[in-house]
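wait is this the right file?? whatever heres the structure
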């Protein structure tokens, strides 16, 4: 006996059709009209859209950062993701300087063990090449473990940043093993000079975080990262691209180098320095993340870039910290405010409401950006599509459901929500993860720890 999702509108990146979806065990076995109901458990979907579950390729769960640890662990973070319609995440394992990639992998697998509620994978952040370049040879081992993307930070000097020479070596290695390099592109050295000057001048309020990290610093690093990638031939994916200047650099590179890809994140599409960080209150610490919020005029170009394919993915960069006792570490000094914001639960709601309902995105484009492209780019061969043989990660989406976002009712472990009080139309109705109904009527009903590690293939960023 299988589960037959009947009469929904099946939306894929390629089109829409009224059809049934048959799930047996953990897999999709058939998609089409009029699948016989014999013996199957029926899920009526007449008023719903049936889509692949969302994939959030940029999350930071249980991550030590900024003198504390991100508030969602693998249990709360993946439950929040699921309730919002996401069925897989790719989190970041961070190499500690002086330690190996293997140690980082073991640390992150221990964090997720018995806690991950959804299938998940890891990018490996390389922060140190180690003795005799050991990290470079370990990259091959990581790919064999299913970790086919490596993160490089051009920001956060003294903590995570690596210099251009080291980055170049990692890129050379990545090119040789068909791995993907994910880049946090900001000129961290220049930014830190500005930051130190601001603090010396007594400019310590949260909004100075945003002003100290210019769009130009991001654009310059975006240009440099792609230029270095091009010199090595490696595929490169710019994470959390936030502004029009950086976008210009991306497009300029893409005109001649097809292996340059990028994402933006929900917050840059709908939040702005004018609305959220006018420089009036400590509350603005809720929006201290990196890259920072930008001027509103950057939003429309980002939406256009999603439509024209310059940007391939929308992720969250979910890096949650509580306002009361974590953001407060920087009450008198913005440099001590842990950088990051919560968003894993609301990505699809926000993107549907402001993207699809507003006419900026088609439902097909929504699926492409949130589900299909993430799977293709990051080598998740079983995910991101509704096709026979794929994992039955299925989202039943109610395009007419109205929902008011509130920290008081959310699953994320923060005491605030960046979209507090916003009413959106369009929400997850049911979520299946490998064939199992894990979210129904907005509630998580699955078992803790049921998530499995996804081994990803090294496909050099795929072809999107
Ligand atoms: O502010 C952010 N984004 N925190 C998480 C680390 C990163 O840079 O992605
Ligand atoms: Zn980053
Ligand atoms: Zn991040």
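ok assuming it is, sequence goes like this
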């Amino acid at each position: 006996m299988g589960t037959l999702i009947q009469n929904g509108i099946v939306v894929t990146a390629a089109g829409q059709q009224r059809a049934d979806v048959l799930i047996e065990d953990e897999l999709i076995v058939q998609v089409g009209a009029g699948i016989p109901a014999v013996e199957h458990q029926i899920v009526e979907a007449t008023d719903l859209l049936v889509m692949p579950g969302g994939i959030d390729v940029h999350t930071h769960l249980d991550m030590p950062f900024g003198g504390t640890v991100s508030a969602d662990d693998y249990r709360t973070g993946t439950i929040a993701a699921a309730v919002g319609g996401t069925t897989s995440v790719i989190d970041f394992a961070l190499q500690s300087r002086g330690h190996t990639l293997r140690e980082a992998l073991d640390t992150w697998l221990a964090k997720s063990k018995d806690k991950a509620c959804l299938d998940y994978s890891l990018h490996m952040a390389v922060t140190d090449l180690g003795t005799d370049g050991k990290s470079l040879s370990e990259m091959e081992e990581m790919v064999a473990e299913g970790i086919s993307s490596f993160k490089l930070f051009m920001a956060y000097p003294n903590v995570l940043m690596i210099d251009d020479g080291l980055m170049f070596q990692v890129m050379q290695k990545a090119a040789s093993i068909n791995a993907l390099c994910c880049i946090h592109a900001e000129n961290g050295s220049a930014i830190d000079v500005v930051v130190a000057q601001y603090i010396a001048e007594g400019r310590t309020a949260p909004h100075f975080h945003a002003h100290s990290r210019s769009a130009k610093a991001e654009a310059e690093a975006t240009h440099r990262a792609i230029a270095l990638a091009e010199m090595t031939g490696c595929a490169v994916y710019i994470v959390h691209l936030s502004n029009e200047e950086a976008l210009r650099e991306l497009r300029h590179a893409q005109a001649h180098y097809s292996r340059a890809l990028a994402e933006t994140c929900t917050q840059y599409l709908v939040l702005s320095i004018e609305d959220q960080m006018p420089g009036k209150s400590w509350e603005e610490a809720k929006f201290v993340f990196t890259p920072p919020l930008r001027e509103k005029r950057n939003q429309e170009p980002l939406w256009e870039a999603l439509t024209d394919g310059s940007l391939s993915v929308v992720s969250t960069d979910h890096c949650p910290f509580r306002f009361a006792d974590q953001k407060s570490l920087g009450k008198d000094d913005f440099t001590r405010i842990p950088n990051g914001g919560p968003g894993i639960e609301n990505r699809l709601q926000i993107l549907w409401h402001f993207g699809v309902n507003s006419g900026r995105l088609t439902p097909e484009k929504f699926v492409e950006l949130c589900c299909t492209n993430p799977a293709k780019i990051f080598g998740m061969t079983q995910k991101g599509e509704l096709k026979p043989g794929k994992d039955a990660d299925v989202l039943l989406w109610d395009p007419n459901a109205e929902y008011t976002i509130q920290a008081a009712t959310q699953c994320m472990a923060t005491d605030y929500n960046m979209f507090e009080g916003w009413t959106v139309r369009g929400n997850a109705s049911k979520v299946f993860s490998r064939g199992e109904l894990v979210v129904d009527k907005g509630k998580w009903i699955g078992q803790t720890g049921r998530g499995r590690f996804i081994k990803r293939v090294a496909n050099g960023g795929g072809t999107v």
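The chain has a mean pLDDT of 98. so i think its the right one actually
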